[in-house]
């Protein structure tokens, strides 16, 4: 099921992941208004948030690209699955903090991505 639909899965998860470009464009809008996370602003925190948004956007583009280029699929999925797994794990280790609970939808999405990508990489579907 996953193998037969992997291109579509990569396009959809890639587009959703790439939507984090909005963090690069307007970190305050995303964190305070959409994610309900209070961030103390200054030059360095905003710079790091913008960098994070661009890095996630590029990750989404790689997922989309791997949807149409099977030659890069395994290395891209390996890297993205590891990245998303570390993100999910880090957040779950801090789940008692209120701001992390506000990210529950993001945690769930990335966890499902990790599971689907790993199943595909293992050749189990």
Structure, explained:
The chain is an all-alpha fold and 125 residues long. The chain has one domain. Helix content is 79%, strand content 0%. It contains seven helices and no strands. Helix 4 runs antiparallel to helix 5. It is globular, with a radius of gyration of 15 Å. The model has no long low-confidence stretch (mean pLDDT 92).
The proportion of strand residues reads under 5%
* Spatial separation of the terminal alpha carbons: 6 Å
Instruction: Find the count of extended strands (DSSP E, 2+ residues).
Output: 0
**Class by helix and strand content?**
mainly alpha
**Can you count the helices?**
7
Task: Give the topology string: H per helix, E per strand.
Answer: HHHHHHH
Question: What is the approximate shape?
Answer: globular
Fraction of residues in H or I helices: over 70%
Mean pLDDT: 92
Instruction: Give the total of domains.
Output: 1
Radius of gyration: 15 Å
Q: State the major sheet.
A: none
| Low-pLDDT segments, ≥5 res | none
Can you give keywords for this protein?
125 residues; mainly alpha; 7 helices
